[in-house]
Amino acid sequence: MGIIVQKYGGTSVVDIDHIRNVAKRITKTYDQGNNVVVIISAMAGVTDELIDMAMQVTDSPEKRELDVLLATGEQTTAALLAMTLKAMNYPAMSLLGYQAEVHTDCAFGNARILDIGAGRIKDLVDERNIVVVAGFQGIDENGNITTLGRGGSDTTAVAIAASLKADICEIYTDVDGIYTADPNVCKKARKIVAISYDEMLNMASLGAKVLQIRSVGFAKKYNVPVHVRSAFTEEEGTMVVNEDSGMERLVVSAVTHDKNQARITLKKVPDQPGVAAKIFTPIAESGIVVDMIVQNTRAEGHTDLTFTVPKVSFEAALEIEGRVAEEIEAEDVLGDKNIAKVSVVGVGMKDHSGVAAKMFNILARENINIIMISTSEIRISCIIEEKYAELAVRVLHTAFGLDKEE
Amino acid sequence: MGIIVQKYGGTSVVDIDHIRNVAKRITKTYDQGNNVVVIISAMAGVTDELIDMAMQVTDSPEKRELDVLLATGEQTTAALLAMTLKAMNYPAMSLLGYQAEVHTDCAFGNARILDIGAGRIKDLVDERNIVVVAGFQGIDENGNITTLGRGGSDTTAVAIAASLKADICEIYTDVDGIYTADPNVCKKARKIVAISYDEMLNMASLGAKVLQIRSVGFAKKYNVPVHVRSAFTEEEGTMVVNEDSGMERLVVSAVTHDKNQARITLKKVPDQPGVAAKIFTPIAESGIVVDMIVQNTRAEGHTDLTFTVPKVSFEAALEIEGRVAEEIEAEDVLGDKNIAKVSVVGVGMKDHSGVAAKMFNILARENINIIMISTSEIRISCIIEEKYAELAVRVLHTAFGLDKEE
Measured between alpha carbons, how far is B197 from B243 in angstroms, rounded to an integer? Predict the structure, then answer.
């Protein structure tokens, strides 16, 4: 008998009525003869409320205790959902992180799953129970509660699906799939039927925000087919699968954009070993996540170095680099918040040359200046002026043949 | 170095400001050189909110899942308190039921503590940590979360104090001690300096409501000195101790009353073996708690049988006994909600005759009719008409020499 893992996000369990709907969806799958394991998030908004509560105590709450606090969110919904299923006369049982043996490292607040000791889940499933696992939480080697970071329930779901060798991991969310571009920006965006893990990895980090990126890495490693779909309709969503799974191979699968970045440039940095470390160590120590880094060679033993950080970290990063610039005797520090990152993503790129050139040409035709460029095997990203972001997405979407048919 | 166990009730941790005050009290004790283990309740009102949530799902929520839900209440305050102590630069750590190894039976919703595997608490205490234990919750032999019933945190505290061989178990609550009578009813009631476990056992079940009765049994068994005191003042409260602890031995220590009972009488019950079982089995199966039972012999092979149940269970019990009466061919079923139980309690009674006679005389002098009588070694209880309850408490309080000096 097949095992289906279903993960429901916070907006799907926001109150008892929603939980009842989730229960109906689960029992429908169960009644079709499948074994079902459910991973559940906290009710939408609850995690933020708990963080607010902790912030009333102190600006920097102890991370171990914050995890103990946050774990109550998923515990609450897991209990309520199992209760709902029992009230519908289905055999159901909730398991918390430690009961489901979700073993993690001890990086409180951002722990990584090391392994799932799926003994108890497996036994319960074999007895035809619907197992409801509290997502987002695990336990470290000392028996402390850990949490997996924002979106961590996705990773719980994929990891449990992998350990159970489930047929599929369904991620129920408030969008109905993954699109070729943000439909709010590009009216001609199409829902993608199937996308590869690698493309998804590149899209998630670019702001697609549908799946926690770590869960996609897990899915790729253990080859777990993931189906991202809406909790509110019966429509098929997007399959995230191995790229050999006979999916349509477009050169470019999607155009993404991210307006949440800001740019910082250090001018005339002495071109010596150790300088880059001096620039980025204090940034990392402040917990600021750097996205793109570009360094241009320049004359006379100096170089310019540019990188991007999230807009919210811009002022802090600028202040840090002001001090660094003095220390390393760079000429100046400049910053710009009015930028956006536009990317084209596609596994087909690996076999096609000229995608980058085509992208630059399309942008040039619209008089959009490219400020920075960064590429991976299956992605090309350009930093442009923020005001051109939507225009760039639309023209690239059309030029790479992604527009839906009218 | 001595170990002090402190338990804080829901009204002491109702918000972050209150939690901060609790933290100050804890650190004061710690700074005096004591090792401190804290047992914490859910914020006042939270447990009821969680029950309401479950009742939105179904009228009779699965007990295992209800316990998973309810356990979040104490988990939240334990995390917040440990966080507060850490923010004050004290070494602190929260432990949940399973982490503190509070092993219970598997009676969900009303589990009994079997033992405390205090290894981890002891290690943490030895390293001078302030350990904050989530009260009210434990874990059964299968790793399921259990809860200990209303007031269960008291029992957690006493059980942990016993296992650690603590010097004292302080119960911080919203009253400043145990009184010789309810001060709202009897203005002359005095705070009791010291009271024996046995007296407390008799008082708790009679509605003194300051300590969960099970915790007192635990304290007696392991001889744990318990100090019941206010979380809001520095005043000494009431010590609950072994009766040999040199406490003042009054004949009567307190007068209690309970207006939450209702009476049910089955008239002309056939006086045959097995009849009592037929009367009380369906009541027990409905989860209704019977308090007093009185049976009077009557002529011609029949007897009258009277018992009391909580007022909220009155209608249900009456309906059940209507059916039973038909089955066992009793003549009639009568009920009365307008009753009260008034009791005098005191270990001194064991050595003094005439306490019962004195009590009946005092009530008779006020023309208070006694409906039922029940006695234990150190307690005499009378059921009287509800309207006389306050008067009875006052006259008994005076007559047994309990009034405070003016």
Answer: 7
The mean per-residue pLDDT over the stretch B71-98 comes to 98
CB atoms within 10 A of CB B277: 9
Residue ranges, chain A, pLDDT below 70: 204-208, 245-249, 297-299, 406
Does the distance separating the beta carbons of B76 and A75 come in below 8 Å? no
pLDDT (mean) for B54-59: 95
Shortest Cα distance, chain A CAs vs residue B174, angstroms: 23
Compute CA distances A88 → A21, A43, A114, A218, A263, whole Å.
Answer: 12, 21, 35, 34, 54
Chain B residue numbers with beta carbons less than 8 Å from the beta carbon of A76 are 50, 53, 69, 72
Give the Å distances, CA to CA, from A213 to A153, A217, A282.
11, 7, 25
Domains of chain A: residue spans and CATH: 3-174 (3.40.1160.10)
pLDDT digits (tens, 9 = 90+) for B5-32: 999 999 999 999 999 999 999 999 999 9
DSSP state of B179: B
CB of B211 within 8 A of CB of B177?
no
CB A178, CB A200: distance < 8 Å: yes
Q: What is the ipTM of this complex?
A: 0.83
State how far the Cα of A76 lies from the Cα of A41, in Å rounded to an integer. 9
Q: What is the C-alpha separation between B215 and B153, in angstroms, rounded?
A: 9
Question: Which runs of consecutive H residues, i.e. helices, occur in B223-298?
Answer: 275-285
